Structures are given as C-alpha cells and as structure tokens.
C-alpha cells in the first residue's frame, strides 16, 4: 500500500467518516458514485473462473480489467475469451495475483482458485482495500475463516461467497415457509449429496509442465512433487487442498438450512466415512451427525429414508412438529396433515428477491452494505463442514465449544483447526 493511500485512510478514520458508514472505494477516493463503472479482476481462470468472467462482463456497470492464473495456458485462453466478451477493451494478464492487488485502479476481485488459496487471497485483497467475490468453500480451515472476518471488518470491505444457488427464488421461498412456522418447530434437518470421487489410481510424479508455476499453485499447502491428478479440477479430492464432495457441495445445500434456521449452540460432531480409492484421500462416502441446541442436522452421501428423497441427488429435508418440507435447488414439497403441496400462497413474500448473485455483489459494493451471502453468514454456515472433516480424519466423536470455537479437551482435534503455511507463502496472519 502506498503511503498516500494509508494517509487517506487515517484521515477517514480520524475524521469520523468511517463511523458514519461512509467508507470509500480505495481506487476512487472522493469521486465514486453509483453511476460509476466497477473495475473487476478475476484471479484463477481455469474452470469456475471462466464463469466469473462471463457473469461479470455481462453486467452493464462492470469492466473486467485484469486476469490472473498460475497456468500460462489457462491465462492465454481466458484472455482470448475476454476479447469476445469485452470487444475492444484492454484486459491485462498476470501470473501472480499480488500484481493485481497492487493496482489502484481495481475496485474488486473475484477468486476461483483451488480452495487452499481462497482465504489468503481474500484477506490480502481486504488489506489492499479491495472487495471480494470468493468461490466456495469459504476457506481451507476454521482459523482462516476467522482471519477473513477479522480483516473484512478491520478494512471495511464487502464480500460475497459464490454459492450461486442462494440467489434462486426457490431458496428464498423455502426460507419464508420455514420461518413462517407452517411446519412447526423444526427439530431435525437431513442434508445429502450423492456421488463419490473418481478412482485416480496411484500415479507417480512427473516433470512440471511448461508454463505452470507449481510452487505457487501449491502456495500455503505442503510441498509435493507434481502429479497431474493433484492439480486443477481433481485437486478437490485431496485433503491438502480441499475436502472432496462434502466440501464442494456442503455450502450449496446447507445454505438453505442455515438461512432458514440459523442453528446455534453446536455441541458435538461425529463423522463416519471411507477413504476414496486410489491416490485420493477425501471421503468416498461420508455421514456426519451434528447436535445443536434444539436441532439435529445429519449429512449423508446417500439419500435418507424419507418421502421424496430417493429421486433427488442433493437435498434438504426439514422435519417439524406440524409437518415437513423437502427441497433441492429448484423444487420443494411441503407436507402437512398428510397433504402435500408445492407452496402455501397464504404465506406472504417477506424476503427481497435477489437481482442475481453477481449483481447483488456489485450493488453491495456501490451501497457499502453487505450482500446476502456475506462473509459473517458464510463463515457461520461453513464452519460445521470443517468440523465434520476433522471428525472424519480422527475417526471419533468430537465435543465443541461454540463460544470459544474450540474442541473440548482435545488438543489433537484443535491442532486441525488451522494449518501453518509453508514458510515462503506465509503471506497473511
């Protein structure tokens, strides 16, 4: 950060503008207006990053000005794509995201890197005065989520997690119905996602491909020799970088449950599972039982034995003392007194509908108010996923202190709440 920018921030803080909520964008001190265009950079443009490019370049008030990827081929292909998405507009490419954070003309970034980079990049972006649209899962571990929230609040930043299903009308309506009390007090929620990691075999390491910065791809993760199966899309099946199907889909379906019920007082977690076949080490299948105050949440790989679940590859089943509700991304069914329906028209709309997940982020950046899937909410919803993986790794039930955010009397489990980054990549604290 330049000295001049730091002096401006100190002036804002000392003059009381920050206390009034009049936080200004770092690249437009004194002249950022709702009509101004938002300058966005995309970090990680292999798979989901290309969706980010298409989504944001289609928004009328957004200019995509930079891309970054550690794989030169990904970057070159994405720069070509941007020529068709934004004809005639210059987009610069980088191999190191820190060059993007150094640019004062960039207002916000999106992050679609592998999971183990999410928190460091977001936190450094907050510290550089940039807002963040970050892919799920929120972070690699619990401590990273705490670090992200602490820095977001300190630097008055905006964050939206990229669980795009959150923006759908179906989820909004499910939440309205649950909150209305139509099915009574909910005591049990069953969440599931079918699927298993592919059998990646037991390949050996090979030379790093030309144009791939493997050391930076690994970043904070432990160093290993290059194995193609550990890189790019299939990275998600290795615990050093992600958490398999569970981490990939938890936030998409747990989202509707946490939004509707805001579970409190998590007391215990117990997971059962089996390692994937071959070199991968995330679960082949997984079951996790969560015990909250007055609520039990169960995660399974197979659909639970409840009405309507068998034909859904992903879903949430709410059991209340007056009825039940089952939903997936696009559908829902409510059963009360033996009668099943898809809606209860008498329940009014009480939640403002989303203009679109990415538009919601842009609107939040301009208004300086947090979007729907904001960091505080996303962290609270993501935390049980991390704890479920820790229980799986240790193979035992764990007791949790939700106030201190620590396991009770279990040093081995608490050690897994964070991971020390490799020395060269300890960029944030």
Give structural attributes:
429 residues; alpha/beta; ten-stranded mixed sheet; six-stranded parallel sheet; 12 helices; disordered N terminus; Gfo/Idh/MocA_OxRdtase_bact_C; TAT_signal; NAD(P)-bd_dom_sf
Short description:
The chain is α/β, with parallel strands linked by helices and 429 residues long.
Strand content: 15-25%
- What form results from the Cα inertia axes? globular
Q: Which secondary-structure class do the elements indicate? A: alpha/beta
Q: Radius of gyration, rounded?
A: 22 Å
Q: What is the total tally of β strands?
A: 16
Biggest beta-sheet profile = 10 strands, mixed
Helix share, percent = 25-40%
Walk across the major sheet and give the strand order: 14-13-12-11-7-10-9-8-15-16
- What is the first-to-last residue Cα distance? 17 Å
Protein name: Dehydrogenase
Domain Gfo/Idh/MocA-like oxidoreductase bacterial type C-terminal: 204-426
Pfam families: GFO_IDH_MocA, GFO_IDH_MocA_C2
Organism: Arenibacter algicola
What does this structure look like?
The protein has helices spanning 3-15, 48-57, 72-85, 97-101, 118-127, 142-155, 169-180, 214-218, 244-261, 357-367, 375-394, 411-415; strands at residues 38-43, 62-68, 92-94, 108-111, 131-134, 159-161, 186-193, 268-275, 283-292, 295-300, 314-320, 323-327, 332-336, 339-341, 398-401, 406-407. Residues 1-34 have low confidence and may be disordered. By secondary structure, the protein is α/β, with parallel strands linked by helices. It contains twelve helices and 16 strands. Strands 14-13-12-11-7-10-9-8-15-16 form a ten-stranded mixed beta sheet. Strands 3-2-1-4-5-6 form a six-stranded parallel beta sheet, with helices on both faces. Helix 5 (118-127) packs parallel to helix 6 and helix 9 crosses helix 11 (375-394).
């Amino acid at each position: 950060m330049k000295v001049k920018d730091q002096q401006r921030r100190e002036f804002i803080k000392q003059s009381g503008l920050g206390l009034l909520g009049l936080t200004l964008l770092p690249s437009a001190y004194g002249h950022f207006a709702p009509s101004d265009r938002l300058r966005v950079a995309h970090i990680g443009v292999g798979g989901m990053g290309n969706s980010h490019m298409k989504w944001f370049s289609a928004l009328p008030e957004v200019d995509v000005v930079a891309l970054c990827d550690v794989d030169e081929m990904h970057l070159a292909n994405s720069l070509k794509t941007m020529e068709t998405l934004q004809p005639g507009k210059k987009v610069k490419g980088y191999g190191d995201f820190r060059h993007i954070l150094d640019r004062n003309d960039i207002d916000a970034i999106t992050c679609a890197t592998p999971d183990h980079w999410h928190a460091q990049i977001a936190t450094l972006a907050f510290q550089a005065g940039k807002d963040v649209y970050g892919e799920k899962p929120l972070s690699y571990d619990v401590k990273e989520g705490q670090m992200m929230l602490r820095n977001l609040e300190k630097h008055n930043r905006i964050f939206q997690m990229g669980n795009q299903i959150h923006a759908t009308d179906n989820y909004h309506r499910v939440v309205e119905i649950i909150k209305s009390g139509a099915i009574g007090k909910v005591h049990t929620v069953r969440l599931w996602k079918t699927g298993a990691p592919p059998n990646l075999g037991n390949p050996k390491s090979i030379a790093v491909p030309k144009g791939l910065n493997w050391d930076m791809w690994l970043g904070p993760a432990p160093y290993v020799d290059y194995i193609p199966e550990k890189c790019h899309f299939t990275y998600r099946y290795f615990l050093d970088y992600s958490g398999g199907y569970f981490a990939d889909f938890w936030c998409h379906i747990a989202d509707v449950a946490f939004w509707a019920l805001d579970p409190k007082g998590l007391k215990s977690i117990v997971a059962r599972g089996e390692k994937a076949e071959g070199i991968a080490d995330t679960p082949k299948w997984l079951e996790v039982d969560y015990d909250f105050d007055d609520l039990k949440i169960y995660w399974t790989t197979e659909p639970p034995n409840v009405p309507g679940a068998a034909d859904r590859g992903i879903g949430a089943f709410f059991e209340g003392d007056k009825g039940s509700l089952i939903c997936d991304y696009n559908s829902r069914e409510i059963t009360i007194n033996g009668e099943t329906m898809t809606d209860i028209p008498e329940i009014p709309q009480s939640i403002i509908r989303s203009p679109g997940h990415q538009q919601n982020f842009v609107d939040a950046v301009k208004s300086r108010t947090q979007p729907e899937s904001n960091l505080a909410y996303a962290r609270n919803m993501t935390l049980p996923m991390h704890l479920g993986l820790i229980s799986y790794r240790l193979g035992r039930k764990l007791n949790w202190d939700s106030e201190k955010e620590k396991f009770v009397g279990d040093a081995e489990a608490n050690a897994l709440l964070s991971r020390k980054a490799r020395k060269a990549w300890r960029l944030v604290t």
